Structure formats: C-alpha cells, structure tokens
Amino acid sequence: MLVLNATYEPINVCTVRRAAVLLLKAKAEVVEHGSWELRSENTSMARPVVIRLVTYVRVPRDTHQRKITRRAVFARDGWECQYCGARSQLTVDHVIPRSKGGGSTWENIVAACAPCNRRKGDQLPKQANMHPKRAPRVPHPQVFIHVASPHIPGAWKPWLPEAGVAEAA
C-alpha cells in the first residue's frame, strides 16, 4: 500500500495489514481501493491500495545520509546499465574507482551491467572511454518507494511525482 502524508505527498509503502490497522484506528483514510474486500468476523472493508494519513507526519529529508544499497542505486538509475542501457546482470560500479581515490558515495556509484563493469575495470571513465549516461547524484526521496516496491501499481502513479517515476521506470 502506498502511504501519503496529510499533504498527499507519498512517504512510504506498507503492508495491507498495517494499512488496515491505520484505517481502523482512524489514523488514515482510503484514497484508492482495490476491487475486493478485506473481511473479518465482524466487519469488512474495501482493500486499500493508497491511504492518506489524517495528521501530517514530518519526514526527514536526509537522503544524502541514507545507506547506499544496490537496489537503491538500481532504482535511481532506472534499473538499467548507465553505460550501455542493458537491463540484465546489473552490478554497481564506482565511476572513479576506489583505487584511484573515488569514494562510495551517491555521486560516484552507478548501475552497470557485468560486461560493462568488467570492460571498464579499474580505469577512469576517460581512460576506458566509458561515461555514464547520466551523472550520478543523490536520489530523489521518491526513489525509496521504488526500492520498497519495484513494481508500481497503476493506482499509485497519479500520486507519485513525475521525477520519481521517471527515475525508477
């Protein structure tokens, strides 16, 4: 389930169970619902797909401090190699190799397919004549929604900013 803040800003992804608890405690409301119902012994409710919190929750924007994971790099780079565009055998590559002084930062790591990563090896982009399609950067906070759910349901798309959708599509 996609969770929206009170301002309709997407902030998280949660399970159906967590969404149902938030709805039953009146901490959230259904914005989009599925075609089938959730049932218990005493009640039933439409299956939530997108919920909105009733009160505003402050979300820290410390993306630059978030842990760099392979899935987050892949989501930021659209699940494709930044050198050739391949979508299989993805690995991560340090644009400036660590042996040449490059760090493990958002601005130095890109998604690369295994063949491109081997071809580039321990060389600088200029030496290998391999430059990323897009300069690596700190990801938009919405990328982490794509990390939590690589497949984005159609009902979520109106609620996700275009930048977030484009980065992970």
From TrEMBL:
Keywords: Endonuclease, Hydrolase, Nuclease
UniProt-recorded Gene Ontology molecular function terms: endonuclease activity
Domain of life of the organism encoding this protein: Bacteria
Pfam families linked to this entry: HNH
Annotated HNH nuclease domain residues: 68-118
InterPro entries: HNH, HNH_nuc, NA-targeting_endonuclease
Name of the protein described by the UniProt record: HNH endonuclease
